[in-house]
TrEMBL record:
Signal sequence annotation: none
Family: Belongs to the ComF/GntX family.
Keywords associated with the record: Glycosyltransferase, Transferase
Species: Brevundimonas subvibrioides (strain ATCC 15264 / DSM 4735 / LMG 14903 / NBRC 16000 / CB 81) (Caulobacter subvibrioides)
SUPFAM superfamilies linked: PRTase-like
Annotated Phosphoribosyltransferase domain residues: 183-248
Superkingdom field: Bacteria
An annotated Gene Ontology molecular function: glycosyltransferase activity
Keyword check for Glycosyltransferase: yes
Protein name: Phosphoribosyltransferase
Alphabetized CDD domains for the sequence: PRTases_typeI
């Protein structure tokens, strides 16, 4: 049955080639045109285990697994992986998905995360998306983190817990805020639900979001999960800002 299904899909693609997510062109380049694919700055090892930032070179067996900023001031989540850098090439794709109601990007981004976050997925017990406030969910019609987390959990055969966390405060947009302003904006904005309180205790959670900017939102979510008894929390995001971490002064 699987063979017949795959054959049927292959024949359909020959007759009606799949369209690229970023244009009206037919594509075989994993959902993007070749030009768009080549411009995305995918993050490859070696990367910082704490924030997912790319190291300029491989320091060898005795090099630290973490950047100076993560050594000086670790996040509340234990580890992080990002599929790519958040820049001009990836920003447009992510914003089309997040604010343009182009949900076809969800499967593509889930595949990116499946590759980039493989070391985290291997040790995870369950996948939890960063939640939206109900009012924002109503306006946007879907939670972009949840639409990525669901296929990621399914492909990895992990428990998917979309209702483990809730956003109890409708915070203002994080855009344009300083790192401190972002932390204050989401402080105490997240809490465990009754379901979360039952299902995260003693488990290693993979938290999924779209972009890591300063880490404030992910830290607030990780704090709620850890306070609720999670054994550890790791973070997987589509993209991270290059300057997400700086050495504290």
């Amino acid at each position: 049955m699987i063979g017949l299904t795959g054959l049927g899909r292959g024949l359909a693609d020959l007759v009606l080639p799949p369209m690229a997510h970023d244009s009206r062109e037919a594509t075989q380049a994993a959902g993007l045109t070749a030009d768009a694919w080549n411009r995305v700055a995918f993050l490859e090892d070696p990367v910082c285990d704490g924030c997912g930032a790319a190291f300029e070179y491989d320091g060898g067996d005795f090099a630290s697994e973490r950047c100076a900023a993560c050594l000086a001031s670790p996040y509340r989540f234990t580890r992080c992986r990002a599929a790519c850098v958040y820049d001009d090439a990836s920003r447009g794709l992510i914003l089309k998905y997040k604010h343009g109601d182009q949900q076809q990007f969800a499967g593509l981004f889930a595949r990116w995360l499946g590759r980039a976050a493989a070391p985290l997925i291997e040790q995870a017990d369950a996948v939890v998306p960063v939640p939206l406030h109900p009012a924002r969910l109503l306006a946007r019609r879907f939670n972009q983190a949840a639409e990525i987390a669901r296929p990621l959990a399914r492909s990895a055969r992990l428990d998917y817990l979309p209702d483990a966390l809730q956003r109890t405060t409708r915070t203002a947009s994080q855009g344009g805020r300083s790192a401190r302003g972002r932390r204050l904006n989401v402080k105490s904005a997240f809490d465990l639900t009754e379901t979360g309180a039952r299902r995260v205790r003693g488990r290693r959670i993979l938290l999924v979001d779209d972009v890591l900017t300063t880490g404030a939102t992910a830290e607030a979510c990780a704090t709620a999960l850890l306070d609720g008894g999670a054994r550890a929390v790791d973070l997987a995001v589509i993209a991270r800002v290059r300057t997400a971490r700086e050495v504290p002064r």
